[in-house]
What we know:
3-stranded antiparallel sheet; binds 2-phosphoglycolic acid; 10 strands; 7 helices; about 15% strand
Amino acid sequence: MSNLKIDYFQDYKIFSQTAAELVCQQLARKPDSCFVFATGFTPLGLFDRLSAAYRLGKASFQSSFLVELDDYYGIHPSDSKNLFQWLSKAFLDRVDFPIHQTVRFQTDVQDPDRECLRIEDEIQSLGGIDFLVLGLGANGHLGFNEPGSSFQSRTRVVKLTEASLQSSQRYWGEDSKVPGKGFTLGLGTLAEARKTLLLVSGKEKKPVLKKLLTQPPSPDLPASAVHHFDDVRILSDLKIS
Ligand code: PGA
């Protein structure tokens, strides 16, 4: 059995509220924290609560920094599928996050490898990632680190698997074509974060969560890299028996 710390919640509301409290505690401890927030359906409740906390004067991101976790490659930055745009609408524009304190992938660059090095350099200049909020892919991906990703991998461009393309299709609708490649912070890059919160919600995640908690870490299940992360907490609204 795993020694990963996991907290189960009876519903999505309490799960999201707890995640928001942990982000607020980080803000109180270190207002100039460097955050990474996953996109997807899972953190939407967290974003709602953080934006409510901001409106009530209980949370401010004025001094904080953000690095994008992943994005598609080969689309214009203003494309509606651009994940930084998604994050802006879902979260950044609803709080006081200064845009000049955010680092995003330029999704239409000519030289993607150079772009990945730039992102790694930006993380170093910010002093590393303080607080990482991740979601879990039904195929075990973390960011766009697909099955087979080395635990030492750095920021890079990857070919998205059929499972991830189908999962992404949920965001954009059946008729919308999802780009086949993506940028992602590497598993080795993520492993250097000082604190990690892995959020697991959605009944389709039950099998992968069970694997994560019961099987030895392996690149076949990229999320199992978290076994080697420094300070990880998993929150879930799915009880694994
Ligand atoms: P979800 O996706 O939060 O939309 O379920 C998570 C993921 O696939 O990484």
